[in-house]
Automatic annotation (TrEMBL):
PANTHER family: OUTER-MEMBRANE LIPOPROTEIN CARRIER PROTEIN. The keyword Metal-binding does not apply. The keyword Ligase does not apply. Residues 1-20 form the signal peptide. Transmembrane segments: none annotated. Keywords: Signal. This is Outer membrane lipoprotein carrier protein LolA.
Amino acid sequence: MKKLLALLALTATIVHTAPAQQDPKATKILDQMSAKYQGMKAFKASFTQTLENQTAKVKENISGDIIVSGPKFRLKLNGQEVINNGQTMWTYMKSENEVNISDYDPDDQEISPSQIYTLYKKGYKYAYAGETKEGGVPCDVIELSPEDHNNQIYKVRLNVSKTDKSVKSWKMFKKNGNRYTFAIKKFEPNVPTDATTFNFDKAKYKGVKVIDLR
């Protein structure tokens, strides 16, 4: 569960504050990136998450995939599945054959995966931080820092493709020394979805134990 919550820590604590003056070059790149994702009906991404902590001498890699449509998402990661239809969230743990049901409130989540492309719009300062290459793809680097100093995340670094403005990877820096890197391995725009994509169907999980936390 801790690894899942690590992924659900990307868009930490969005704060409703007056927008600060931002780096115009970074703003242009982020706006182009955001428009790209918001123009899609849905998308699917396969990714690798790497957790590193030099002090604790930890380095772990896990893989997952996610389907996103607006505020809705379906995330599979390390034997767990999180399904959100915008109102209700189901967290299914395969090893226990158990699902927890809760009301979905994005303000109560450390991350909403569907907000990766709008993260910068509320509660963050950001600046252009140079160029890099990822898998041979030239990228612009944008660094974001939360305006809320109590946030356990103090920096998020985005690598945005110069060619098509897609997010190639992002790295999250936490005050406890943990560093989480999320690298996109495969991306599919405008994937088909239906009413079943973002809802949990108990009939497909034989014998599942249901815990309703609402």
